[in-house]
């Protein structure tokens, strides 16, 4: 699923409520939205060479301005890979990134060092990320991998922001005896990656 290029709301606003005295119940269209048009499309070519995985990534995003980027990626082919080397020719920069290091059950740390040929500068960066976000734990980001046949995989990055439904009420408190919040769900497919491996 960190800042997402596609943006998107969620959080606590906009829940639809009805009370026992009167309002119209929320329709499914108002309470639940699902966007199946991805904001990012990746085409990845991978090849295994002597214990290393060499990849070429073509990335397309921000349809309004047709942004694109190419990356050359080199990393160990073992499942426990600890580093990743990346070169972006359009930006003329090199990066060496560590794997995501678990800090807690939900938090990961990643560090890296890089050099920009345009700026003639070298620096380092770090990032703490999580699969949870938004309002507390009301947002989930995940990736689902589908293998169609050997050498071709599809990886779908999706996000769901939700507020769980709740029923509440009271007596002698000035509140309705029965009140219901129908909750809210905003789900979207943010990224589709087609991965070709030889």
UniProtKB/TrEMBL annotation:
Entries under InterPro entries matching the protein: DUF7781 (IPR056683)
Domain DUF7781: 27-197
Record region (Disordered): 1-24
Superkingdom of the source species: Eukaryota
Pfam families listed in its UniProt record: DUF7781
Coiled-coil segments: none
Name of the protein this chain belongs to: DUF7781 domain-containing protein
Organism: Rhynchospora breviuscula
């Amino acid at each position: 699923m960190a800042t997402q290029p596609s943006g998107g709301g969620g959080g606590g606003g906009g829940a639809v409520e009805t009370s026992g005295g009167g309002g119209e119940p929320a329709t499914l269209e108002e309470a639940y939205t699902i966007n199946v048009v991805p904001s990012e499309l990746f085409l990845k070519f991978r090849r295994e060479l002597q214990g290393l995985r060499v990849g070429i990534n073509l990335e397309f995003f921000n349809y309004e301005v047709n942004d694109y980027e190419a990356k050359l990626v080199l990393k160990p082919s073992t499942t426990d890979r600890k580093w990743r080397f990346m070169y972006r020719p359009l930006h003329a920069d090199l990066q060496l990134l560590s794997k995501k290091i678990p800090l807690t059950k939900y938090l990961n740390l990643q560090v890296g060092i890089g050099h920009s040929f345009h700026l003639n500068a070298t620096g380092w960066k770090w990032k703490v990320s999580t699969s949870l976000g938004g309002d507390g734990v009301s947002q989930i980001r995940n990736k689902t991998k589908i293998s169609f046949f050997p050498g071709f995989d599809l990886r779908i990055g999706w996000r769901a922001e939700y507020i769980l439904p709740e029923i509440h009420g009271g007596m002698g408190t000035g509140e309705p005896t029965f009140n219901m919040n129908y909750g809210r769900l905003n789900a979207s497919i943010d990224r589709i990656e087609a991965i070709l491996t030889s």
